[in-house]
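Supplementary Data S3. Sequence and structure tokens for construct A.
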Amino acid sequence: MPLDESDELTGRVLDDRYRLMAYQTHAQASVNYLAHDLETGDHVSIKVFGASISEDLEFSRRLVVDTTKAALVSHRCVERVYDWGRFQESAYVVVEHYPGVTLRSFLAAGYTLNPAQVVKLGVELASGLEALHGNGICHGDISPSNVILGLDTSSKLSAVYLGNALRAAEAGRLEIVGTGVDDRSQEFLAPETSRGLSSPESDVYSLAMTLRVAAEEGSTTNEAADAAARPKISKRQDLGQAQDILESALDPDPDVRCDAKSLTKGLIDAAASFVKPPPVAIPESLASPLLAANRSQQRVLAEAAEFDQVRWRPMWKVGAAALGLLMLLSAATAWAVSSVRPQGVSAHLVDQYTGRTIGEVRAIADSVAWILDEDQVRTDELPSGIVIAQRPEAGSRLAEGAMLIVEVASGPRLRMTPLVIGLSTEAASARLATKGFEVDLVQPLYDETIAAGEVMKLMIDGETELGGSLREPGTRAVLVVSGGPVPRTVPQLIGLDQESAEEALNALQLSSARTLSYEVSDSVLEGLVLRQSLTPGLLVERGSTVSLTLSAGPDRREVPDMRGLTVLEAEQRLVEVGLKLGDVAGEGELVQATEPPAGTMLAPDSAVLLWVLSD
């Protein structure tokens, strides 16, 4: 979304829940809006990212992961993350509405922090960073641009989910075409992470660099690059013990550098030598009208938290009183002007239109010459065409030609497509059903690396869906799941020797049984595969085992040495070895020789001649 079109979204409703009330600022490839959460009634801030970076796969993946993690962190010095989604071609993130200004704006305007305020700021931010690291989150882009000085006198780390997503995009295809970010604070990055994702150690370095810039007397963010070139924080006697812990946090060696917990403790110890500083006063020139409108309420909260430690300068009170008087006068003037109607223009009583059909309200508006502005809002509570809200309220009077604004139910709320890639088929189907989707088909697809049953892709209307887009309830989805490895075709192994057969099986990621069996064969040479347990051509799973039977060669029986045996004894011996008695030559009683001679190998049941010559 081009920045010059950013204000066109004001008044739109995202995800049937977040009404964009006012354009605020733009930074880090996003446009920031103040919004109204129609579900909770709270004010929130919404960051809408440009279409180009929103469509980057690596950016989207990292943004979803880090936003999901950040939503689990609840710390008073860390910007709360509530939700994320997609609107048209743009991704958006919903965070808490925290009135204040960035430390960068504060310093760039020429305002400064005294040493005690720097230490207090450091304690708050370091404790927030410790909470992030404890939840497995690395900020990735701590700098004055991402530190908010709040109207409630505290401070927060902001954009905790964004730095690594931007770096992931830069490492991909957007490294060439750019991410649309021109204000990244490269000078605050640790030496070891000038490129790549962040680490806890690099976050500590970036925070210490931010505090160093805040501690520089008369410094601005334009001087940050020069400050980054100096090896150590400028020696300021009034920083006390904070000097040592900040130098430890800025050590160029990440293995020596202190962690967030040590930085917090060190700054707390250093704070003991300071008188509690007065709250940082946000100048009126830096506060937007919306922030100024919230200032009185924020100050009441601040006074309740700070008790008698909060001290405001008298001049500030005079200025605040003057501003308050000016606002009252402006409001009175606006009311007076709005109450004046041209002569001859009639006004009509506004009735209660909520709960009526839009057709009825249209007829009423036509009858009294009102201009009807219809805002379509999705809801699960009312059928389509029913008026949900109206402006002005019932009991008001509205002149002819004036505008009556109504919100009309346009159907059930859209459902955000959940992330299901990597889940089992059962878990993915359950998650889709919970979100109001229907699983139309589970389509298996063979894959050599992804486990069988794991979801590889979600398809809706024939297109791949990563998750996060809004769909009509009841949308039918197709799950593409891994069918496991491609089935293997059992090869022909008969006639191969053992080594060749095992090589053929290994090539297909099949295996042979450890125990081999042998059988005699007159037709297959000894040592060759005579038989295999799985039929050639059969489809089997990867890793299946095939048992091999090898040929022991033809069956042969050895003619025994029977010299000195009687004919009857010799015959029994031949039967024992699988041979039979042939002719008997001679008139003697004892065997003197055989034909063929002893040791000869014969086929089973072959006849052997006995020589029993007389002396």
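Construct B, processed identically:
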Amino acid sequence: MSFTTVIGNFAFALLLLTGSEVAAQLTINNATFHIESGATVSVQSHVTSNVDISGDGKLLLNGTSNQNINMNGFSVPNLELDNPTQATLTGAMLVANNLLFTRGRIQLDDEDLSIAASPAGSITGASNTRYVVTNGVGRLVKKALNSTPFTYPLGYSHATYNPITVANPGGTPDDIGVFIYEHAYSNGYGGSTLTKEMVDASWEITEAVAGGSNLSITAFWNASDELSGFNRNTSGISYYIATPGPTEGWDMLNSQTGAAAGANPYSYTRTNITETGVFAVGNRPVLSPLLVSPKIILQGPALSNGIMNDGLRTVPVNSGGTTDATHGVIPLADPYTGLSGFTHLGSGGGETLTPGVLGVFNVTDNNSIVDWVFVSIHDGNTGNAVSTRSALVQRDGDVVDTDGVSPVNMAGNIPDNYFISIRHRNHLGVRSFGSIPLVKTVNYNYNFTANLGQAMNGVAPNNAMAYINPPTNTIFGLWGGDATGNKVTRYSGPGNDENQLLNVTLGGNKLLILSGVYSRSDLNMNGNVRYAGPANDENTLLNTIMNGVVGMIISQPNF
């Protein structure tokens, strides 16, 4: 068996029986280059070829520094990398049989590395120190991928390793390529970097022929890849729909999340994928968005002009209490998780304020934060709650997400007609009178404060909402005074709120003042609990809320 090789500028013929070693650069120019079965050609420098290397033997890259490989799109029967640094593709290449990793990584830059169709084409020996680096736009491509799973051993750099396994059961065999982005991004292919609740990587999957695929993918990651807030018990694989229109954006629903498998690496699998593009593993940032902007006033801190006081935010710092100079007593994390009477659904629960929102606490206008509220959406037919979110309410009643400014994202739910409800820890909740259409890319404004007809009354003996600005009665809001959290406000009788205020919270001491606290018994929400004296909570309960009627009972509608 003979072949032609060029080392430097000198051409000569060699007879290859069992193997050969090339210490310099190997260049193959317009010649038949054949490696017999069982034979190995070892190369310690660069490789360039403008023909297929035939035979069933192996080309071994065993240099000690970077080795460039430029096959100009042609094939090599078997390739082994045993280089402690790396090999770099400077031209596309097809491995007809096996790619064996012994040491080192193959860096693609902007070239494609293809593996032939099964059963011949395979990759063996890959690990977290031996893999393909997709640092440019070059892809690792599996030819004619079918129902047999193929693992793409990939990393964005020499410090990251995030393989992905892809199968195409039931789909038309196709050339499926994958490469990895350094991070996950808000717009899939770009936009802002997602910095929390995510695996810090994303995979782009391509197909040679559009349509006909039915992919199953399993993505892998280690704990070191997880960004702050990531919860692997409610994770999932999300696909970014790039087509402009009402469906554009991340597509993952709450029903598609679950617990990750394994441990270092962890993994998650998604099946029945008929579209290719960018995929990421995460929680809320890659759930399908559903935006709504409710408006509600809380009766306890309400002022006559329909603006609320923000006493919880401005209560003076108390060295012996819980106040803080930047946000008073308003907690920086969801206060409803674990609070009696509140149960999170869907992706709700555990919300925290993003770093930028802390600046909102310094705002002194109508957009400053008053407190947290509990937002739910309910099935438009049955009325059953399907998803919740802890959000923030501003002084003017705007309910915003945890960044302090954006619409509330009821993420992970399909576009549909929903009722919306707003509840608060010491107020009676309210639900929209009719269902409202929520879609993926459009924010829906719903103003409860405009009139009583905005709220469902059900069979409650009282109005669904309180008058906030008597005697004109043109602004409406949540009934206050529910210190017990039992969805009923009353001054006397079983489960009454006066008893909760005086005997439970204040221990029966009418003169006791609790300063700088975040308490359900703080009915006027000024950061203090007191029964007597200026701005006391007993007066708020009896005279502001009950209008001086001791026997009055106010019930929340049943929803």
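DSSP finds three helices and 44 strands in the chain. The longest strand covers residues 79-91.
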